[in-house]
Amino acid sequence: MTIRLLLVDDHAVVRAGLRILLESQPDLEIAGEAGTAREALAQVDQLRPDLVLMDIGLPDASGIDTTTAIRARWPQVAVVALTIHEDEEYFFRMLHAGAAGYVPKRAAPEELLTAVRAAAAGEVYLYPPLAKLLVKDYLAGPRGPAAAEALSGLTEREQEVLAYLAEGSSNAEIAEALTISPKTVARHRENLMAKLNLHTRTDLVKYAIRKGIITA
To answer: What's the confidence (pLDDT) of residue 167?
Structure first.
């Protein structure tokens, strides 16, 4: 299946470089480009890409607000942040906005390609050094009453799986870390979805942040 992408960055030279990288992949196609938030929204409306590669620093509005707008109007369109910002504030705000991936511009090309494919498949990909912030906050505790209430219906193993999912780990990685089979991880993930009435991995990450399981 071909993944259709919209590139959103206010620097034409950055978009040109991304186009060369992404179009070298047989499963990726550039549907369009945008240099402003206004253009991005218009292009999403017209082209309906599978995924938007979003810069945070746009000249007319932030990529965070643009991501919020895209996810509200076209929830089937995934968004991956590609940005120079690596601090916690931008990281957590993009997750709150609905981004399914967060990659700094200094990352290796392979990291970006992995993020694009994961997000397009309904998964979450977070750049590992930043993803550790989520698990660190989760494990640090103590957590408040809201978090305790959120966790009350989950088993200890389900809580562990939730933490790894929020980190962006794959089923195979979680299985290795917890010394269980990938099928068991998948079953825990299904149970989490059912108990919390969530539908995607992105929803799980956002839930963990919203409920205070992970502090934003």
So the answer is: 66
